[in-house]
Amino acid sequence: MIPANPSTSAPVTCCDEFARMTTLSRRSLLRSAAVVGGLTAGLTTASTIGDAFLQTSYAATRSAPAVMVVLSLRGGADGMSLVVPHGDPVYYEARPTIGIPAERLIAKDAFFGLHPNLAPLLPLWQGGRMASVHAAGLPVPNRSHFDAIEEIEDADPGTSARIGWLNRLIGRDDYTSPLQAIQYGDTVPPTALLGPQSVVATYDIGSVRLAGADDEDGAARRSRSLRTLWAPARGPLAAGVRASLEAIEDYRAVQASSDVPANGATYPEGGLGAALAATARTIRADVGAEVFTIDYGSWDHHTDVGTLDSGEMQGMATELAAALAAFFTDLGELGDKVTLVTVSEFGRRLRENDQQGLDHGFGTAMLVLGAGVRGGYHGRWPGLELPEDDDSDLVVTTDYRSVLSEIVSRRLGASTAAVFPGFTPEDVGVISSL
Fold first, then answer.
1. Is the pLDDT of residue 132 over 60?
2. 380: which residues sit within 8 A by CB, 6+ positions away?
3. Cβ-contact 290, 67 below 8 angstroms
């Protein structure tokens, strides 16, 4: 057991590798980010990561006609618990204790059904604005948290460049505002956002501010002083300072907006609800952000996946559904431009273990909600098998990049080839064509 991540509300129970990855690797990156932040004279308690420090010009914010939210279910989420293949009898054979009874499923068709704790999402499902793509994941099995996350988020196999797929996405034009991509809930951006384009990573909305300024007047004076000091300067450090000052100023529109969720939305307590509430508030302020990333986990359920009455899965599914339902309620009509997709580094094994848990697996289910979504169940089901060596797995039949490609190209109008180099996507049909 390790402490809860500040961006989540649940204790993190996980394998040693996941514990090391989330505490040591991310802290190392945070220390590096702090050095970068220090070079900009402590401009903000959030981290501005990327080549803002190498640019000589800065573009003002622009309106984002379409928005993509990437929700990472960290730890390897069991897609067969969230989207249950009740029509495959091997599922219940493999999970005599933790299998979810078919009669308790919601949004059920002849083969699939949703975990009953996802009930708050039924209005989205019934309205054709929510979909699942099952048996999705990496093209080659990878059960290492660290390696799988790196591969999922870099999405450019074989390259040595440290550029994430979302950084390539926002780098498709000459717009350079760090506000074009924002990570909420953590000051360390995910690998998907790392690269030459500048992004913002922050715990919350209030953390994007000038350090050392106790009030608004103090911040204004400090900003004027820094602008005067750095205006004539040349070089990457000066460019970074000016860019950060502009980003903080443009972000004030978010901070000046109401912090009361719209349309009667009520978010659950915890980091996920807080991050999605901040995302909705930022979208309403329209400061040019077209990409948001949020981490939610851990889903590394080696023990106590549980039943519908207790255990890790029922609690996390409840929080996930409540937060997503509140998010789209909060957005109201603005939801017509927002597409949210879930990703996870891998799924879980088919067969439950002796501790009512599930070990690292292969395929999982991706959820897609919001604008442009063709609702329902998508993907090709490979069929389940229980080999004698217990290496039971859900075979991947849909490369996760094919799902992301449809959002990238059909919602954001970007080139799939530029975002996912060397990859030819198949037509999943989860996003309507433009």
1. yes
2. 135, 397, 398
3. yes
